[in-house]
Amino acid sequence: MAERLIDTSDLPRIDASSDAVSGAAQSLRDSTADMERAGQDAVRAWSGIGGVLDSPGATDALPKALHPLSRRTATLAHVGSAVAGALDTFADELTTLKRSRAALLADVEELRSRVVSKSVDGTVPPEYEPQNDDLHDRADRLATRWQTAQNDLTETLQSHTAGDPLTGPMLAGGFSPLLLAPVDFSAAVRGFQDAARLPLLAELAAQGRPAVERWLRDHPAERQRLIDDPPDASAVRGWWDGLGADERSALVLGASTIVGNLDGVLYADRGRANQHTIDVELPKARSRYETLSARIGRGEQLSTTENAEYARLASEIGALTSVQKALHDGSPLAPRTVVSLTLGHPPLAAIAIGDMDTASRVTVDVPGMGNTVADSMRGWTGGAQNLYDAQRTAARRIHVDVNVATVAWMGYDTPDMPPSAQVLSSTKAKAGAANLSDFLSGVSDTRSWSGGENLSVVGHSYGTTTATLATTKTPVSNVTLLASAGIDSSVPNATALDVPVGHVWTSQSKADYIANIGRGSIETALPFGHEVQPSTGGPSPTRSTVLDFWSAHPLNPADADWGARTFSSNEERIDGVDYPGSDGHSATPATDAALSHQDKSDNGYLDYGTSSLRNTAYTTLGYTPGGERIP
Length: 631
Hints:
By secondary structure, this protein is an alpha/beta fold. 52% of the residues lie in helices and 10% in strands. It has helices at 18-47, 58-65, 67-118, 129-161, 167-174, 186-206, 209-218, 220-228, 233-241, 245-254, 256-259, 267-297, 304-328, 373-398, 427-447, 462-471, 515-518, 589-595, 611-620; strands at residues 336-342, 348-353, 361-366, 404-410, 455-460, 478-482, 504-507, 521-525, 543-548, 565-566, 572-574, 577-579. α1 runs antiparallel to α2 and α12 crosses α13. The longest helix has 52 residues, at 67-118. The radius of gyration is 31 Å and the shape is globular.
């Protein structure tokens, strides 16, 4: 007979979720099946090496050497399927156990409520002793059944992995029966893929550029996979470092569309590869475009496919021409490099100013609405150049390394200008954030930087929406938000960003009445005579809201509740120097005018000499605009 009144603490804790266990089972099935396919693909990839290389004995031995790999991955897939079945069984038992515990918990609480109302000293009245004893017995049986379920699962795992030198350690290290964390074979899958792809490319490169080009031409699926699912950057970095100069050149020229975007490759080599892509693809696109134009000029009707090609070629020619011009705008003192180039729909690109391979700090500039590579690459690169120059000036004043780099990143499809409503949606920002996260992670991995150290992001207008979504998932050291078109509701405050506290800044010019439209608000100035609006563009008695409407990103980073720090984008006198303010919403109107050989009319946030550019230079270096280092 139990002498003590049963308590909820007598019930076993069953924290695991049957849904999580079932998810673990499916994840295990999928990942080990992927691994099996990776092993098979590795064998297939090497099997054709004899068609491009001629090394008696070696080219026959290489594919044979990978046959055990295929057998091993097949074995792993079999083990994964068996373990997944055990997890499914455990999930079913877990559902029953949790249902039993819920019923037992209700009975325990009911008994305790009765006893407490009749017992002063907490002893169990005689009339409740049988029920109390029964509940203790049920709790013991439930605890035994829960322990048995865990033991059965553990024994099943051991029976499938015992004596296996690969699966045993992997399961033991990656799986806890109690915590029910899914086994993650993704790193191993990638390892098998990279184990085949990187050495293969090295062997091809040793035979020269023609061998590389033939292989990729004969294996289009493998070529596309290298673009869509590239090897891990750390593996690429070690592999690239081990190549000779001739091998690198063979890959830069023979596989330029791959190497030009491959994280882990030196950015100087990526620039050479992307320049080669431009040199090859631009004349081809122009030639084909002229052929189609001539047919149109003769009154011929193009097919639907040809019309689509005609539009694509026009976009590609415009983009590549714009990139070429942006490169030519540079100088030897501030070298420009195309560090990414994608000829998709639309074409995307990123141009670095400075040496990305040695820079102590890298800042990535993210544009807003209406920007395309074809129409905006030169101006946006000019803005990045302005920031590069301003950072170096600031670095000298605060006595830090002047070896910096900035990136004019046009790596996403920005929303169209109004009257399009795209700018009020976060759809393109979310897609852009995924691309931006990949680029930022690639910089960190290529440079072996951890935790986003030495990496900053500047967003302008809708680019602030994109940048904040990206930095919730990808760490950086500093974020500066200019003329924000609004922060998505899923990013409630600055602490949601993976950025150190105090390193998130924002600013909006008093003359900017466009940024707030992206946040779902139309504002107008109050009558003359009132004080000027604060430099941040936050709530102010000098502005009146005349219309509110829906926006998916309504949050103003300048609001005190959001938590960013603020600085001025208005005219200022700092240390005896007069800085003009931003005259509207645009980032680089003065820079654009200079590139077009037109007279300057307005200043923008990233135009040379403005207060916003000067202050952004400091915040992107990790300092306040006053020159104080941010802890």
